[in-house]
Amino acid sequence: xxxxxxxxxxxxxxxxxxxxxxxxxxxxxxxxxxxxxxxxxxxxxxxxxxxxxxxxxxxxxxxxxxxxxxxxxxxxxxxxxxxxxxxxxxxxxxxxxxxxxxxxxxxxxxxxxxxxxxxxxxxxxxxxxxxxxxxxxxxxxxxxxxxxxxxxxxxxxxxxxxxxxxxxxxxxxxxxxxxxxxxxxxxxxxxxxxxxxxxxxxxxxxxxxxxxxxxxxxxxxxxxxxxxxxxxxxxxxxxxxxxxxxxxxxxxxxxxxxxxxxxxxxxxxxxxxxxxxxxxxxxxxxxxxxxxxxxxxxxxxxxxxxxxxxxxxxxxxxxxxxxxxxxxxxxxxxxxxxxxxxxxxxxxxxxxxxxxxxxxxxxxxxxxxxxxxxxxxxxxxxxxxxxxxx
Length: 390
Ligand SMILES: *Cc1c(COP(=O)(O)O)cnc(C)c1O
Hints:
Layout: H1 11-17, H2 58-70, E1 75-79, H3 82-90, E2 97-102, H4 107-118, E3 122-127, H5 132-139, E4 145-149, H6 161-170, E5 174-178, E6 196-200, E7 214-218, H7 221-234, H8 240-250, H9 253-272, E8 277-281, H10 291-297, E9 304-309, H11 312-322, E10 327-328, E11 338-340, H12 351-358, E12 364-368, H13 374-389
Parallel strand pairs: 2-3, 2-4, 4-5, 5-6, 10-11
Antiparallel strand pairs: 1-7, 6-7, 8-9, 9-12, 11-12
Helix pairs in contact: 2-8, 3-4, 5-6, 9-13, 11-13
The chain binds pyridoxal-5'-phosphate.
């Protein structure tokens, strides 16, 4: 497809307009949805640009191009979910490869890595990546893949992606960064030295809580081709309609992110000032331990945060019975605000021991701040916090 966006347009323009009016049939302004699973050959042994939908689909490819440009990669592979994106990298490793992952990563990621390790397909080491010296000692074991998640889910710990990538790559490892929490609007891990970016595009990239899709973006062109080939081999490819919805959501990524972050900052300040709240984890707050690093490494602080209620589970229960504007649900990154209780929801499968090692207590709540009016968000949160006080 022809590219209406010149090579060096700003990322906002890529998000809003990549592929606009490039439809070869009718020059449709909104990108068409190609559902066909198969394509006519021109003749004997003459496939055209597309032959079969597992290998390539115009709608999926347009979304992939836009995401790859936003992440400054050579290409993106779209998978049926964020988990499938991570497994695309992990499943391709030779048997027995060592994977280094953060000890406090997303619960689903940990479940996947542990399941692969239990089946002896990989070796797995879970490490605290905020300690660079400790991290270096783990590199002596020659990992094939280092997985980084920054900011981490749900505690919003930020690690130094450039420093970790330099050391990991010097030891021969490839580095993948899960950029789900910030999106390329606020962080570009490839420009910090990573080899791959991972996304649950289910979250901010789509932004409307109506689709499950994932992405792997590669810095290196040969790696991109190898991953695209592997997705075709294993069949882990995103559906055309899901891709189309995600492209539609991506159009507004930058404005959503900007406003959601603005709302998040106001919410973090409200929480910080409230007597029932023991701690707020939001890197945008100046007293967050990783504030300086986040300010240097990121273009913004994003719309995710977590906080601890001093009263533990009973306080959580009272809060959740009375809170308004924040819906109790898993997932994040949509236009609507959500609240989740990691210990019983997103991080349940991690088990109590790993949770306590990662610092995920029973009084911890995670917020995804949406696009509602800030007065309504404040009032809704206040309703929950007041119930805790009683
Ligand atoms: C949700 C999430 C995933 C998994 O993505 P799915 O699309 O739900 O499969 C991976 N990493 C992070 C940080 C997430 O928040």
